[in-house]
Amino acid sequence: MQIPPERLDQITNRFAELEARMASGTLEGDAFVQASRDYSELEPVAKVAAAVKSMRGEIAGLEEMLADPEMKAMAEDELSAIRAALPEKERALAVALLPRDSADNKPAMLEIRAGTGGDEAALFAGDLYRMYERFAAANGWKIEPVSMNASEVGGFKEIVANVTGTGVFAKMKFESGVHRVQRVPVTESGGRIHTSAATVAVLPEPDEVDVTIDQNDLKIDTYRASGAGGQHVNTTDSAVRITHLPSGLVVMQQDERSQIKNRAKAMQVLRARLYEKMRDEAQGAEAEARKAMVGSGDRSERIRTYNFPQGRVTDHRIGLTLHKLEEVLAGPGLPELIDALIAEDEGKRLAALAD
Predict the structure, then answer these.
(1) What distance, in Å, lies between the first and last C-alpha atoms of the chain?
(2) Residue 123's closest CA among 177, 186, 172, 175?
(3) Which end of the chain, C or N, has fewer beta carbons within 10 A?
């Protein structure tokens, strides 16, 4: 996809203008913050645009040199090399210019729930959470549990965690959906392979300005926590249930001993789910654009199978199979899957623009 010369000029001129404004020392307060944000967003695009512009200029110059018999051989060699490298640089620029998801740079709320398969599903949910923990650590992100419901045999019936860092949602968003595991459970004496599942949801965490919640729209109930938790269980009304009346969304939180802390965590989860609902409605209005994406983001969509007997992981959306299951679950192998999903998504969106 070739970018017109005037678009290249527009990018480089805008970047030069921002550079001059930043260097002028006249910007203050909100104006400086906005200019800094614009500069950081445009800088990588401007660098690729400058490289494309330079390569096109070199090609034009070398083509003129072909008319000189003494320079022709050298010009042909250089021309061949630049022409071979230009398409990749042009594609990189086209990808950089694709409309960005406004949530890509936001932190995320990671929710993992055991599905079909009983105890084995809970153990698998624990495996998935540890995989994302290691992936987060490798990316320099911070992951903190917000609430969890541990299984008696290990793993989790449900766990919700907050993931913060640079570009969290951009890399994690394609993980939403049903993850299926095929393996022989440790409790299986007959050696039979069982199929279990866990549901993963990755929700971008909004800023307060993204989602405004009217306190009058909330019904807040307190009750006594149940399950493991020490002496406060069944003696203190520390658990919190928040119902957002307009949407019908309900969030419950009981992990903390403090009702105030449980309420704060419940509001954090509610804000993320309301933001997801707003995004789903907006994307529904842009159905054609959404068709170009990899997967639908639907939590009921089976997206990946982890097959232990064969040591393989298959992502069904892009038909990619990796025979390195242990490496994927350990964390280091996951980027290969995520990078392939991102590349497929970029390719589909570029094709949609070209149509």
Answers:
(1) 11
(2) 186
(3) C
